[in-house]
Amino acid sequence: MALRVLVTRPEGEAASWLQGLQAAGFVAETLPLIAVGPVADTAALRQAWATWADWQAVMFVSVPAVRHFFAQRPPRVDLSTTPCWAPGPGTRKALRAEGVPESALRSPDPEAGQFDSEALWAQVGAAVQAARPLLIVRGQDDQAKPDPAGQGRDWLSEQLQARGVPVQRLAAYARQGPAWTAPMMERARHAASDGSIWLLSSSQGLQHLQRLLPQQDWSSARALATHPRIGETARAMGWGEVRLTRPLLPDVVASLESWS
Fold first, then answer.
1. pTM, to two decimals
2. Distances (CA, A) of 230 to 38, 124, 150
3. Any idea what the CATH number is for the domain that residue 226 is in?
């Protein structure tokens, strides 16, 4: 019997994962743990584009950050003038799709053990310049509580500021909990103990899950987490079995095949 996999990425990102996992022979379905949408006020986004060539670099924390930032792109902006940083291959691919040339892209080595701010810093740290501003494009949370998934970006800001780099953070999209239907709630409850594998890509998504199902016992749940911090969050919630993988389809498929 084929292994069942729950893809928990936002709806806009889940389709390619579903297609790839289904092609690999898994029964894959989506159960998003985060919903994303535009910010209410886009004036700051337009201003960031107006000064595009002045930034030392622009760091995009995720695929939604790229998509929502570029949705405000004015005509005739030369994308080659400003380096674009990406913490992983998905964000890098999204930047290429928006027309950013390879010469302007900076991201972790493809063979890196994990893709995050630390791995990105290994590639870009030596070239940063003091006093010239740098922009970090990220999401805006629906709550005031700190987001454990944002720890990597905070770490990067600290490294930059220690080098004398002025850092500006810009919310390009809004993150919030998903609007689940009753059948989705029931599916999640069953998936906590029916042998399904949850493909986890966000610590904040796990926080949303905990609020949706506060009484749920996760001791029999199985998860494949795409970063150690996400795995730590799942274990702290009491998940029974948590394994780690890089957030690349071949790595995820290999991990699932070893599990099945």
1. 0.87
2. 25, 24, 11
3. 3.40.50.10090
| Domain co-membership, 46 together with 161 | yes
Q: Same structural domain for residues 67 and 83?
A: yes
Using an 8 Å Cβ cutoff, are 172 and 63 in contact? Answer: no
**Cα 15 to Cα 73: distance, rounded to the nearest angstrom:** 25
Question: 193 and 236: one domain?
Answer: yes
List phi, psi (to 5°) of 227.
-160, 145
pLDDT at 144: 37
Place of tokens 């092609």: 23
What is the pLDDT at residue 142? 61
Determine the structural domain holding residue 18 and report its residue range: 4-34+178-259
Contact residues for 29 (Cβ-Cβ < 8 A; gap 6+):
4, 5, 6, 7, 18, 187
Question: How many domains are there within the chain?
Answer: 2
Average pLDDT over residues 58-77: 96
pLDDT in tens, 202-258: 999 999 999 999 999 999 999 999 999 999 999 999 999 999 999 999 999 999 999
User: Same domain for 53 and 89?
Assistant: yes
Residue 164 confidence (pLDDT) above 60: yes
Backbone dihedral angles phi then psi of residue 226, each to the nearest 5 degrees: -90, 5
Which of 148, 176, 204 is the last residue in one of the domains? 176
Q: What is the structure's pLDDT at 208?
A: 95
CA distances for 87 relative to 5, 83, 119, 142, 155, angstroms: 25, 13, 7, 23, 13
Q: Which of 130, 154, 176 is the last residue of a domain?
A: 176
